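Self-study notes.
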Amino acid sequence: MRYLPHTDQDISDMLKVVGAADLDDLFSSLPADCRRNDDMLLPAPLTEWELDAHMDALAGKMAVAPEYKLFLGAGSYDHHIPATSRYLLSRSEFYTAYTPYQPEISQGTLQAIYEYQTLTAHLLGMQVSNASMYDGASALAEALLMGIRIKRKKKTVAVSQAIHPLYRRVVETYFRPTEFKVVALPYDAGGVTDLTGLEDIDGLAAVAIQSPNFFGCIENIKAAADRSHAADALLITGFSEPIAYGLLKNPGSQGADIACGEGQSLGIPRSFGGPGLGIFTTTKKYVRNMPGRLIGQTTDLNGRRGYVLTLATREQHIRREKATSNICSNQGLCATAAGMFMATVGGTGLRQLAQVNHDKAEYLKNELTRAGFKIPFATPTFNEFVVEFPDGFAATHQHLLKQKIVAGLPLAPYFPELPNAYLLCATETASKEDMDRLVKEVTA
């Protein structure tokens, strides 16, 4: 669509209608010290072709696959996306974003979200899924608030330090202005959550762990559920790599009360960090405490199948003090993409994909171990793992970047106690040749 700005005459005519002398008059109600008086320092305008070239140059500075060999996960993962998913998602019926308030004209959107809910609930072994949250971090924070609502008078939640550090930061932001308390649970020598002393925390409403956790280590969800329930608290299981549950036992089968996390791996491109998809599932008895919206299946007066917005406990729909969340939308397009991916791959395909991801990461871990590097955590991992490099590896890391290899994420900024540790990831997109080259480069 061509951009047609207003002419000076258009602006003059509109100002006359509203009784303003000039554009500055429209802002006369603002105090003078709140208004900018000097011109904005903007670059000179570019032609359409110059702008295209400028954007291409900016994009060329970013390390993205397939030009770069990425061994970087940490909550965002490089996976192959089926061509069928890409094609179907680009259809205008799905790609046009709108909120499905009116079921009589929104059946396609409602059904797509219902299918997504069904598939995610099955993947995680839970009974109910909502129509998605913003991302994995907001889903975790909302789950903790839900735990406090369910346990009512209890005001403390315990959060594992092996959860993604950015997720924990969002939780802190959510809870800072409230009366509720967040207690940190340390990780042990194996890289998994240390639950000792959990029973001694007063007023504990919920416990949150992540599996696979930020280090890629697989947590014992069953043990965590048992200890949480013994303390009369809910267990919330988070994740950033849902494909892991194509291979691992799902949270629902191990006693989790809420399973939530990031769904980017399910057919959503990385796109320089976004958009994401907040998956949120729980058991049926807690459904009325669940944030967000839920699509249900019903029949019309003629007995035909139809879909409706069943629960929407949001402040847009009900009194604010009764709302379970102020998140006012779901990631409709991303949820549709995830549903298409799961339907395309299927249960058997997801299991095979998870196995390949596990095996590739294990191959890279074993090769680095054979090369003499230390793996600090002995706990089994999925997709990614921590490796300890010698002092001065930061320079090698930068050198490899110039060779178009991203050799993992340095953990020191998030975990100062791990100064030489890096988090490496290998998905099905990493070839044996690429992994062998990485090992050769870091040992050179």
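Second protein, same conventions, sequence then structure:
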Amino acid sequence: MAPKRPLGAGALPKPVEGTASSTPDRPPLYAALDLGTNSCRMLIARPDGEQIKVVDSFSKTVQLGAGLEASGRLSRASMQRTVQALRICKHKLKQHRVRKMRLVATEACRRAINAREFIAQVRRETGLELEIIAPEEEARLAVISCAPLVSKKTEQLLVVDIGGGSTELVWIDLRRVKKKHRAQAIMQVTEGLRRGDAGDGNASVVDWISVPLGVATLRDQFHDVEDDAGRFALMSCFFEENLADFAPYAEEQAREGFQIIGTSGTVTTVAASHLGLKRYDRSKVDGLRMDSDQIHRVIHDYLALGPVGRRNDPRIGRDRQALIMSGAAILQALLRSWPTDRLSVADRGLREGLLYAQMSADGVLEERPG
């Protein structure tokens, strides 16, 4: 069944950081947990006007999908690492007395033949109920989270969510929408990601696709190639081959009026490198716009650094250095297909989409005037 668009959707969230805990006279707390192929991440937040105010967060690299490409199964070690992380999440949920939550698992659990056993283990050992969501739902939530970053000048929009095990792409046509309503219109095309003409004044989904290649799965496919530059080139070309079924792939796009919004650790890391940040700063990265040439220069620098240099680069870090080149290969393939002067960096994604969808359905976010 196609996912339903939340009732009351329309307000555009801007997640902001906070530290306050729940009190009886404040709005209820909501939680969103994203268990991916590589990471386990959670946000706890409350509605704050038209915004989402984060009160606690958790992120840990668990490598749930380690070895999945070869065996088709989640390994005992990876499941145990993940359960340990989920125990911490359970503690935080109990500490903040969160009652409204959505806890989802994505590509690794979609593909693993023992995923149901793992879900049962998580329920038994932590009390948490994980939901394995379809690629369409994952793409829908990524679109929701990125709506505030849509430019009034954008006529063709590509939202890209590069995950650990898969990459979701959603192409939206905004030419029939008034400029001042284009960000708002993104919220109205998410129901089922139905393709086709939405009529005058509305946005329409041209096409969407979930490519079963993310930073971890793509890296695993080429781990036996020793040459750094050669492996990168192979990964980029292989990913591009998987775009053949994506309808807009065959269409040439002018840079004017075209915007890509990228939501992933790869895109935010490239942005931090472009800015030359010594320490990651979300306020400088989220919403930053880069063009294809700037991104290509960063990727060229990554290749020049080599594995040891990337490992010691503070903008990449030891946890991400093993995945940054596969993510960069995906990003380069996209930019080779659709060069742009407006790639917007989104330090937001599935968790924010989950939070917004819950709050919107409950009607606790204020509507932003058109």
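Instructor comment on the second fold: The domain at 16-136 is CATH 3.30.420.40 (Nucleotidyltransferase; domain 5).
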